Amino acid sequence: MPEFITKTFNENQTISTATFSKCFKYRYSLTKKFNTGKGKLLFILLNPSKATEKVYDATIIRCEKRSKLLSYKQFRVCNLFAFRSTKPTELKKVSSPEGPLNNMFLKTSIKWSDKIICSWGRFGTLHNRDLEVIQIIKNNRTPVFHLGLTKNNQPKHLLYVSYNKILTKWL
Questions:
Q1: Chain mean position to CA 84
Q2: Which of 15, 46, 131, 161 has its CA 20 to 30 A from that of 117?
Q3: What angle do CA 102, 144, 41 make, to 5 degrees?
Q4: How far, in Å, CA of 101 to CA of 25, rounded?
Q5: CA-based Rg of the chain, rounded to a whole angstrom?
Q6: Which residues pair with 155 in a beta bridge?
Q7: What DSSP letter does each residue of 85-140 carry, written as one string?
Q8: What kind and span of H or E run contains 64?
């Protein structure tokens, strides 16, 4: 029996799939597939909020718009931490904010993708998770980009970056 649950929703020729832990405290990935475009874009962010396969938040909407502007057929969002919270500070209060299956989903998603945009913001250094995920990324040959770096050299969160910002090669 799998230790995760996958839910799918189809609306307006867009298929949305989200994978959660059985307890729904963790979201491991959220993927949207459109009827136009080419290729697969992976966003690696900080942590999921309450977005699901049916209900999107500002970050998922922003990922969708950016992936369409870049002419991708589909995009997936994974995170440094799979714990679902609207407040990044809550990650400090959880014993295992990365989630038991998150590395497996990250590795699979990195291999699945044609391009990666890292965009986790300044809290990525919590538990040195940024360094751990960067090593996972480096073990693959998928091209990696960011939208600018914070003062502590973390990839800026896409909510705070203009759509006009050109991707910068990273790693």
A1: 12
A2: 15
A3: 70
A4: 12
A5: 15
A6: 149
A7: -S-GGGGGGSS-TT-TTHHHHHHHHHHH-SEEEE---GGGGGGGHHHHHHHHHHTS
A8: helix 58-69
